[in-house]
Design goal:
about 20% helix; 6 helices; five-stranded mixed sheet; single chain; alpha+beta
Length: about 260
């Protein structure tokens, strides 16, 4: 897709699979029966893993960095660098890596075997996520090992800020303390790269659903509702982090119901 002069390309790393009713639901109800089209043949929720490549001016920006070399019963990566090469980009070409948040399936290629993968890039993330995942006394050791090598090339932010021409960071905490949405704009056009503010189409159509991954479910709900209210029936593109094929679309109303329509 293009927003103004900015090209946004999906970079697919692999896939994840979760039991939908265990990880995403409305408390006390089983609404998945109303949304079977978003589940696979086993009734699971399939998640595409990866990130997005943006070219703006002389900057080559990655938004998130996939799941990395992980390969287990739930998550399988490994395709990110090849997908990037398919877009004509090598790791050395990347000038900026920005994270929507620091869960393992968004930072997988930030480092590999203790070495920084994108050696010419500045890495950016909300300060609250770095504090939670790296600096906290009870931080998960695996996250610290993965992310600590970035320290010398890291820049953090804690308010809305412009990171590159046409690329603005907007804090949207809830899923994690420092979850952020990246707003890509050009002329009158906008695309909102929302990370895990929504994992599935159903959260955009019914934003009161809860995800077990949310650190603060109430705040995550509030952010989803605010996002949906802001963009419904507008030309704004919504770009979640895990839709099949890293799809994007718009939220529109049909009668009294919201629908996410893939573009």
């Amino acid at each position: 897709m293009k927003v103004g002069d900015i090209e946004i390309l999906p970079v697919i790393d692999g896939t994840g699979r979760e039991n939908a009713r265990e990880v995403l639901s409305v408390p006390g109800e089983d609404r998945w029966a109303c949304h079977p089209e978003h589940l696979d043949a086993r009734g699971d929720l399939e998640l595409t893993l990866g990130g997005f490549l943006l070219r703006t001016g002389d900057r080559t920006v990655l938004v998130d960095a996939g799941v990395g070399r992980i390969h287990n019963d739930h998550y399988a990566g490994g395709g990110f660098l090849d997908a990037l090469a398919g877009h004509g980009v090598s790791p050395a070409d990347v000038t900026d890596v920005v994270f929507t948040h620091l869960h393992f399936d968004h930072v997988g290629w930030a480092t590999s075997k203790g070495e920084v993968v994108f050696g010419n890039a500045t890495y950016r993330v909300h300060a609250a996520d770095w504090a939670h995942f790296v600096d906290a006394a009870d931080a998960e050791p695996g996250a610290v090992r993965k992310l600590a090598p970035l320290q010398d090339r890291l820049e953090v932010f804690d308010t809305e800020t412009t990171l590159a021409p046409g690329l603005d960071a907007r804090p949207t905490p809830g899923h994690t303390p420092g979850s952020s949405t990246y707003v890509v704009s050009g002329g009158s056009e906008r695309a909102l790269l929302v990370g895990d503010v929504a994992h599935s189409v159903v959260e955009l159509e019914e934003p009161d659903w809860e995800a077990t991954f949310d650190v603060d479910p109430r705040a995550a709900q509030a952010m989803r509702n605010a996002l949906v209210h802001e963009v419904t029936d507008t030309a704004d593109l919504v770009v979640p982090a895990h839709l099949p094929g890293l799809a994007h679309g718009r939220i529109v109303t049909f009668g009294d119901r919201r629908r996410f329509v893939t573009v």
